[in-house]
């Protein structure tokens, strides 16, 4: 059974590890060797974080910049993909922040784009960044 709760200090090390491993496995088109555990600290500073547990194991999280209803990160441990954990995290964060909710997704991250579009997100704009292009996606009522 999936349990979604607000993150606690006890979750910190597991979150750092999940963040690092997920990014290394996802962003293969970049130099992932430069990623480090402490990236989580800076990347989620002042963000609201929900975590997903299965059998007391931290298997996913979503972090949101509440001021803008902006999802900054949503990661699920690869071993737990296709088990509705990402959907559960997304639903819970929408309960918390409401609509509209936005996020950016690298256009090369086709698996994530497919997930978000299946959930009803629509593309609002496409912008260049250092590694190519990202899409700004939005979900509204």
Strand order of the largest sheet: 1-2-3-4-5-7-6
Task: Give the overall form.
Answer: globular
Share of β-strand residues: 35-45%
Looking at CATH, the homologous superfamily of the domain at 2-98 is Gcn5-related N-acetyltransferase (GNAT)
Low-pLDDT runs of 5+ residues are none
Structure overview:
It comes from Empedobacter falsenii. By secondary structure, the chain is of the alpha+beta class. The chain has a domain at 2-98: Aminopeptidase. The protein contains four helices and seven strands. It has helices at 12-26, 39-43, 85-97, 110-118, and strands at 2-6, 48-54, 57-65, 70-76, 101-106, 122-129, 132-139. A seven-stranded mixed sheet has the order 1-2-3-4-5-7-6, sandwiched between helices. The longest helix is centred in the first third of the chain and has 15 residues, at 12-26. It starts with a strand and ends with a strand.
What would a concise description of this structure say?
The chain has 4 helices and 7 strands. Strand 3 and strand 4 form a beta hairpin.
Task: Give the topology, please.
Layout: E1 2-6, H1 12-26, H2 39-43, E2 48-54, E3 57-65, E4 70-76, H3 85-97, E5 101-106, H4 110-118, E6 122-129, E7 132-139
Parallel strand pairs: 4-5
Antiparallel strand pairs: 1-2, 2-3, 3-4, 5-7, 6-7
Features:
141 residues; alpha+beta; Aminopeptidase; seven-stranded mixed sheet; globular
């Amino acid at each position: 059974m999936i349990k979604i709760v607000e993150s606690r200090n006890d979750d910190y090390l597991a979150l750092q590890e999940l963040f690092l491993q997920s990014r290394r496995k996802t962003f293969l088109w970049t130099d992932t060797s430069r990623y480090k555990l402490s990236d989580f600290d800076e990347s989620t500073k002042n963000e609201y974080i929900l975590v997903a547990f299965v059998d007391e194991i931290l298997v996913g999280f979503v972090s949101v910049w509440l001021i803008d209803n902006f999802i900054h990160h949503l990661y699920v441990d690869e071993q737990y993909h296709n088990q509705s954990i990402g959907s559960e995290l997304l639903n819970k964060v929408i309960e918390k922040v409401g609509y509209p909710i936005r996020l950016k997704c690298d256009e090369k991250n086709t698996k994530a784009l497919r997930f978000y579009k299946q959930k009803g997100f629509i593309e609002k704009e496409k912008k260049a960044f250092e590694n190519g292009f990202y899409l700004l996606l939005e979900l509204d009522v």
